[in-house]
Structures
1.
Amino acid sequence: ADYVIVGAFRSKENAERYDQQMVDMGFPEVHFGFLSARNLWYVYVASSDNLEEAKAARDKYRKMKMFKDAWLLTVHP
């Protein structure tokens, strides 16, 4: 899957806090997850199994000032 990442954190607590801040600001689609290969917690606003859909979502969120640095992370199971 491809994820539109808006934050990366070393601690779960920081990822949870950022996730909750985004939800409180009106972004209920925000979630977080752990990638053991990089030992990081990632906060994402969208995910898709279709790369083109993920790119479109990333571009949509990048238009918002707070997500201007959003990027894609591809995770293979």
2.
Amino acid sequence: MTQIKAKIYIIHENDEWLIPLRIALEKLDVDYEEWSLDTMVVNIDDTPPNGVFFSRMSASNYTRNHLHSNQSTSIILRWLETHNRRVINGSSVLNLEFSKAFQQLELKKHGFMTPKTIVAVGTNKIMEAAIKLNIWPMIIKPNQGGKGLGIKLINTINELDNLIKQNLIVFTLDDTWLLQEKIPTDDDFITRMEFVGGSFMYSLKVYNKGSFELCPADVCEINYDESHPVDEGNNIDLDNQPTFFIEENPDIKLANKIEGFLKDNNIEVAGVEFIKNNDDEPVIYDINTNTNYNLNAEKHSSNHKNGMEEIASFLKAEFKKYNTNMTLR
């Protein structure tokens, strides 16, 4: 039987974040095509091409003036799924990527500890939500966020009132906000567990250094100094500590539990972020299904894993399965 030609399609909206994946795919000689989605025309009566489709759409799309990416990607993914195409991180995953409130609800349903949260739909409801939460200090974050943009630590109700009156609460695409407790912790870092193909890859520690913008992509890390070794002990020099490094002894029990959560939600590639509270319990606050990786951290890790190469290998294997199934039909 003649084999049906197909290829891998990468759905995205940010060329800069795609560069490392391009390198990894080309290294493995993978036939792929990019679909950069924002404004578009699509004939939904057409039949999609054959292949494996991987969505790398990011919730931070609107910060790059790609305001239409929500709708374009949602329509394209549903179109592909209607035609039974192999879609990795499909439409249901996109809904979670675009809503931190949805993420919190799903995490709670699966028994994970999450921050106490009240949602304000509309900027005019932020004060009311904060008064109801009444845990100070608290954090305000956009429902559709990304890279930590728009997240602020609020110490008092008067401080929040002043921010609103001075229009210092930044624009978001859906004008929906999460008011959350600030998790009390003795740690100076958060942890981000990375999963590819639904399987745990590694655990990344991110030293916040006073910032909420914790994007792990190489373009996000500044002033990295390789001359300072990573110290996982108790005497960490935070001024010279690399922002990102891979944990040598990750919490495998937690990773296994998260794997089950990802499977139940059809999430195949993701980074899951948590912080340990003062009782040493992980509190999960974010799921990023458009995960990026830090080459400096990977280079200094003993596990020798490269995130984008892991994704490229996973895509290549899924493409082989898809081609085999198409040939047998």
3.
Amino acid sequence: MNKEYFDIAKYDAHFSNKIMERGIEIYLSDKMSDLNQKDNVYTCKIKGSNIYDVSVSFKNNSDEVDTMTCTCPFAKEGSNCKHMYALLLKIKCNYTDKKLKKEIKQGLKEL
């Protein structure tokens, strides 16, 4: 995925405001674990009433979502869930954090 242009707001239309709010709450909690990336697929586990397996895959070298899956009951009914939104936030924030750290290190070298 080309994360240079990754914009979380472009996915908001796929989620209701309530789902996004709850996804943000999950992202800010300690409920997410085992974030992994393999090629264009990101996976994690999220603890709720059960532990849910969540994945997001992107189309070849783009930030366009190909598929999103979650093992929660809401997603099994065919809806995009709060767990999916939390994973999208995690992907974006991890990228931003890595980019910021790289810029800081480069700035230190230039001093």
4.
Amino acid sequence: MKILVMLVGLLLGALTQPGAVGAEEFPVRLADVELLQSLRDGGLVIYLRHGTTDTAQPDRVPEVDLNDCSTQRPLTEEGLQSAVKTGGAIRAARIPVGEILVSPMCRTIETAEAAFGEGYTVHNGLMYTAHMTSQQKKYALETINELLSRPVPAGSNRVLVGHAPNIMDAMGYFPTPEGVTLIFRPLGANGYQYLATIPPSLWPQLLP
């Protein structure tokens, strides 16, 4: 809780107060060409929400089997293609990518592979939190705050492939639609700053 209070106090309004329930209440900022240049310079965190999923096949409750994708909500073909296009846009924009950390869910792993290929690492701390208790969420919350706050070397960007509820838990923002990209500036001990949102449909407008 101390970390959340610190973030809200220091980020000059970039984060919402606790209790915000979605994108409509959150001051969403769409990316522009200046943000694209900042990404080329590196030192930022790129958070990619997994692609579009088939809601007719929900996750098994209360717990999925991480080794059995049939127990999890799957990506649609549209979701796979969206990830392919996002990865292609990042490369076309000449945005350098360093470490890629991915939730252990099948839909996030498939999104990462479609967007970036095989060069990723599964991180259990990015696990989907929607079905977790408050106690179970502690590790995930610590993880997301640490990965968004930890500095990234210039000339590279950290990529996280995860879920909307994890961002909601951390900063009161439920990013939509599926396949959306969020950009953060890590501030070390001072937390992190939300910079912009890039819906899948915005990437073509940002590219030269």
